Amino acid sequence: MAQEVEIGNNGEGKIRSFWVGFGLSAITLSLYGLCWYYFVNDELKDVGQAKDDQNLAQSSPAMSVTALLVGGYFIIPPLLSVYNYGQRIKRAQRLGGIPRGDQINPVTSFLLFFPGALLIVPYFIHFWYVTKHQNMAVRAAGGLPYRGEVATLGSPETEAETQSLTAPSIEPPATPPPPAPEYPSAS
Fold this sequence. Notes:
Blueprint: E1 3-7, E2 11-15, H1 18-27, H2 31-50, H3 54-57, H4 61-69, H5 76-95, H6 106-119, H7 121-141, H8 156-165
Antiparallel strand pairs: 1-2
Helix pairs in contact: 1-2, 2-4, 2-5, 2-7, 4-5, 5-6, 5-7, 6-7
């Protein structure tokens, strides 16, 4: 199940698993892949709206999917759509404050997609690459650590969380000891 992240006031994104998306795409003969492409483009649009970036906020997820689906007959529209998707991820990462060295390279994403579709393995790597960077952008937009780091035990953040989550210790009331048994006297 994908982890949901709130983006701004009215947007929501998901941290998606590459393996789940890949498996569902294989099972549904790429039908899920088209739905996935719509959803991730819609999340990037939500990031643009939350960060007041008009270029990103006015992108059209439906047109992106249409370019893949119908534009395939003309060759150029799906290629532009995939390249622009990489550009949108990079823009969302920049808005989220992700350092330049950790941002997606849209050209790499595109090259893994186009010639990669003919070679299968780079095509597979393309989906892993864009899913990884999409998740980074969604985490950053939601105010989470963009790499998905988990706080380690013993760190101040974890100590505070642990103390706030543990129930206060309640000691049972002290009861007086039972009276000593009376033994009959031997007289």
